[in-house]
[Ribosomal protein bS18]-alanine N-acetyltransferase (Derxia gummosa DSM 723), 132 residues
Amino acid sequence: MAIEKLAYPFPWTAGNFVDSIRNGYRTCVAMLEGEIVGYSVLLCALDEAHLLNITIAPQLQRHGLGAWLLDRTIELAGDAGATCMILEVRPSNPRARALYERRGFIQIGLRKGYYPNGAFRREDAVVMRLSW
Ligand SMILES: CC(C)(COP(=O)(O)OP(=O)(O)OC[C@H]1O[C@@H](n2cnc3c(N)ncnc32)[C@H](O)[C@@H]1OP(=O)(O)O)[C@@H](O)C(=O)NCCC(=O)NCCS
C-alpha cells in the first residue's frame, strides 16, 4: 500500500488487494535486498490473462525493473495456461504504454471513461493485448 499510494493519483485500496488475493488472482512481487519494490496482479481465466496492476516503487522506476517484472508476470500467465494477456492503460501514461509496446503489446481497443480522474471526470483506457 505504501508503494501503491506513492505511485498513483488514484491508488487501489487495501481492500482491492485483499479481494484479489482472496479470489485467487496470481501475484508477482519484486524484492530487492529483502524489501518489496514492485508487484503485479494477474487474473487468469481459461486461456486469457488480465493484468490488473503492475507497479514499481517510484524511487526505483526507470532502471529496468518494470520490464523485468512484466516478463516474470508473462511467464506466470503462460504457466497458468494463458495464451494471451490483456491490460488497460491510461493514454496519459506514456511510460507504461512504451513499456508494453516494447514488449509487443498492441492496442486492440479503447474503453470510454474507464478510469476516475478527479471529481466528476473520467479518463479513457487504452486496451492492449499480447498473444503468444
Ligand atoms: C510503468 C512502470 C511499472 C514501469 O516500470 P519501470 O521500472 O519504470 O520500467 P523500466 O525501467 O523497465 O522502463 C521504463 C523506462 O525506463 C528506461 N530505462 C530502463 N532501464 C534504464 C536504465 N538503466 N537507466 C535509465 N533508464 C532506463 C526505459 O527505457 C524506459 O524509458 P522510457 O519509457 O521513459 O523511454 C512504472 O513506471 C510504474 O510503476 N509506474 C506507476 C504505476 C503505473 O503506471 N503502472 C502501470 C499502470 S497501466
